Amino acid sequence: MLDDIKPFPNLLNLHQTVVDAFCELAESTISTTGRFRVSLSGGSTPKRIYEMLAQRDLSWQHIHWFWGDERNVPHDHRDSNFLMVRKALLDHVPVPEANVHPVPVNVDDPKAAAQQYEATLRTYFEGDTFPQWDLALLGMGDDAHTASLFPQTDALNESERWFVENWVEKFDAFRYTLTAPAINSAAQSWFLIAGENKQDALAKVFSNQHEPQLYPSQLVTPSRWFICADAIA
Asked: What SS3 state is found at 9?
């Protein structure tokens, strides 16, 4: 299946294509429904996309921003996904504060924070079995994780919850993450993948070896793959 995907020749081309597609989808959705709900990804590839989006003229007052995963650190910590998005995008565009929905990090009680964010999502998407994102942006790590669904972690087995705290042994820390069903409920979900360090993981995700406990990105069925040529062996 990987052979069927046409990779982007360079990262700039990938970034520009994603930004154009994001703007087109956002404006089309807003014209139809009056709003656009997006689940954001952390990472260096999405960061540049957010910086480029900040230069566009969008209907910012109708876009709602959520986070697909977060680190268990305060919002002003350099590792915070919220801080990254705020600095790259939200500080530069007229987004109403009510449209920004960050994870309420609680360093000492991540379970309570995850439950609080799930309650926020269930209130916002009241009546839905799982959150009906208009778009979920996703990255993939060199261990084939996506969001904070890491190999051989408890969150991979969750089928009812929307958002959970997830203990990641290799970091000796909790991460916050959407569950796989809460990602797959998106009307559109896009994987954004670049870098030579992703080659092995990407090949395994696309292989006939279906082992989502080892390769969590296999749990997601994206509508589009945006893959840079350097990520393909």
From this structure: coil
